[in-house]
Amino acid sequence: MRPAFMFATGIENSCPTIDGGRTRRDEMDACGHYARWKQDFDCVQELGLWFLRYGPPIHRTWLGPGRCDWSFADLAFNDLAARDIVPIVDLCHFGVPDWLGNFQNPDFPELFAGYASAFARRFPWVQLYTPVNEMFICALFSAAYGWWNEQLRSDRAFVTALKHVVKANVLAMRAILDVRPDALFIQSESSEYFHADNPRAIGPAEVLNARRFLSLDLNYGRRVDSQMYEYLLDNGMTREEYHFFIGQALKHHCIMGNDYYVTNEHRVWEDGRTAAAGEVFGYDELTRQYYDRYRLPVMHTETNLAQGPKGDEAVYWLWKEWANVLRLRNDGVPILGFTWYSLTDQVDWDTALREVNGRANPLGLYDLDRKIRPVGQAYQKLIADWREVLPTQSVCLRVPVVRPRHYAQACGAAGEHADAPAAGARTPTEPHNLQGG
């Protein structure tokens, strides 16, 4: 199969808790996916997409250590395979099952690795994963802002959540690679920047601009700067825990997915207060900062904007984000995919899921009645226009993605069942075959 640019969308599966853990914000339920999942997959195909950010609802699937209810996942993932849609599997999206508590639980990383392994064994044809979505934001909103899950507000709680979340991601990657050695991991992470409001705010802004890299620094085994090292140790990370992250060697299996919204840039005052700054630098500049730091292939893994009163606001935002992607590619940054997130409108993200209002947010390619929005039509046309141009003109990566039908054919040719990898067989493509242009 000729490598293709990865145009994608996602089906929102956020599931944090609020109200001291008493209320679960299940976006798959709120957006009607459990009842309309086949229709949602029809919409993915109608758009001309082959890639879908998608995952089973962790709180309904993972019932305890070594115990899973795969009934819904079996239906959904078997249908995706039949349609030859490539899932980018999102295993943990801002929440954990009630029995685990929250991200302060030190048992979470090892237990989550077991869950990831169980998923990979049940669906061995799946190759692309985001084990933990937006690790930085998950820890920030849960343990620094006090919005979700543990609802704490301290540096120590934030560092505790962060080290557990990133360790869970690392151990999950290892566990999945044990099952699928050619697995690729797309770290969907928020790209942030903090602008100093005045000269006295330069110091606080510099601290925040260093902190934004912590999740990916730890995940990729990159040494943090001295100020962040002291920050981590001052707030509960031990030297042994830090050395665990620095000793990782999984970077060559990874694609740096970064998310960008109009809220990702911030204005900082001298007392440390922040507020949304709107789009100042934009996706192009922020992605360049992250790429210069990690030197990994890039995928734009999330963006959206509300349709707005004029009806074309989201369409224009799509055009701007795509222009940023093309600029990066033309400048030699190996960017290999783009995602409008999510497929349908979302519910209550205007309050970051902190309030149960049942308010539909017009952010999707389709509304909650599964009627295509103008941005959905624009994305459909963008995909049709650019799909055949980019692979031939790209100076970027050749990504060894194995489509579901090709995995089944390879297993069949080896004389094995399609639901299990051929014993002792070489995997179709190895991660080190990722090639830069």
TrEMBL record:
For the region Disordered, what residue ranges are annotated?
418-437
Task: Specify the protein name.
Answer: Family 1 glycosylhydrolase
Q: Which organism is it from?
A: Azohydromonas lata
